[in-house]
Amino acid sequence: MHLLLIDHREEFMFKLLLSRIVFLVPTVFIILVSTYLLSTYTPGDEVAIRLEMAGESSMRDLDQYELAYKNLERDLGLSGPKFYWSMMPDYFSDEIIEIVPLFTRNTLTELTHQVKDWTIVKDYYNSARELKLFVQDKSVYRELSLELNRQMKHDQVSAIKQLAIQENYDNSLKEMINALNKNIANLRVSSALIYPRIKWNGTNNQFHDWIKRFWNGHNISLRDGVSVTEKIRQSIWWTLSLSFITLTLACVLSTIMAVWLVGNESSMIAKVLNSSLYFFYSIPLFWFATLALVFFTTDDYGEWTHLLPSIGIKFWELGDSFWGNVGIYCRQIILPIICMVLVSLSYLTRQLVVDLKKQSKRLYSTMVRAKGVTPNRLRWNHQLPNALMPYITIVTGALPRTIVGSAIIEVIFNIPGVGKLLLDSIYFGDWPVIFTIIIIVGVVTIFSYLLSDILYAVLYPQAATSILN
Asked: Structure pTM?
């Protein structure tokens, strides 16, 4: 009989995991697609930024710059169609995808949608590019190039002509300007009927290359050219260590305090403790952390307040071993952990107290008390296991929130974790780092709920069976 129960539980666990994985795979795919679509609307041009970091400029040699741009764009997986399939108007041409840089490509795409004739837009682009190539070694090239960018959507070239007068050019320049003027005049908004065209691109698309870059860890930071994977690897252990210690201490302490508070509600200590919990729950974390930093890491308010060392993890003193670094800076992370534990403890304790009170009103509690079981044993052995059901969801759901929420603590106490890395990357516009962290948080969120389901299945098989059904 015992073996039958074990086989039944293993079969149930297998079905539960299989059902969750069936939903997990498309959910992860949706997170990846959503993050990628969001990344396509970020300001700036990643290829142009990297070329600028390498000293390349379109103001020197246009052909050389475009060749370097195409090569780098291909290496970064930013060339070609964006997704596995694309739906475009019948007037749209694949030639637009090959035009560089991104600013010119986007402008020509917008013009094509307005004119609804790629041939006219292409003639305009060729004449403008021919003019830029003709004067690229002249002193007027920079002004002319900038003016052409401004004139993309205008219907006249008077400013370009004025620039040309400043130099003693032959008739070839005049012919080019006249041709450009004629092509710009043809750029008229059209209201032609649009027919959609669907095309299958296969794996030769930007999204597929983006996934491969993320999976292989080939993303490069725009800020300093360091591998994104390496930057996150160095910072995630600080965040995970803070999160693990915080959640462990908060869960253990909140359980002990909640059970004690339920049995000693009328005592003065319980009233003071409840008031303290409400205080820590209502106070903003950044303010509490700042106050703790001011009062307990300096001697400005007396030598007795200087209980802990000054804040800050010095990057130049970090070694190769993470645990060695933790050993060196263990005293620096005591105060951040205390701040995070107190704020988490207040919420978890109050939640568990409410659930324990609900369990005390259930019929089984009355029956157990009638058998002569002591109140303390009743709370620990009978009421607490049942009260932990919603507690599991709260704790597992706190895992991803702790990773992002630790940003406040990491910035205030200068801890090089993922939260601080995320805020620094937002400040510097380092989009590869930002979107990688977003994906990691999304995946951690999914697996935290999977962990919640597994814990339910192990601790509460009957409740998990209803979830599965």
From this structure: 0.76
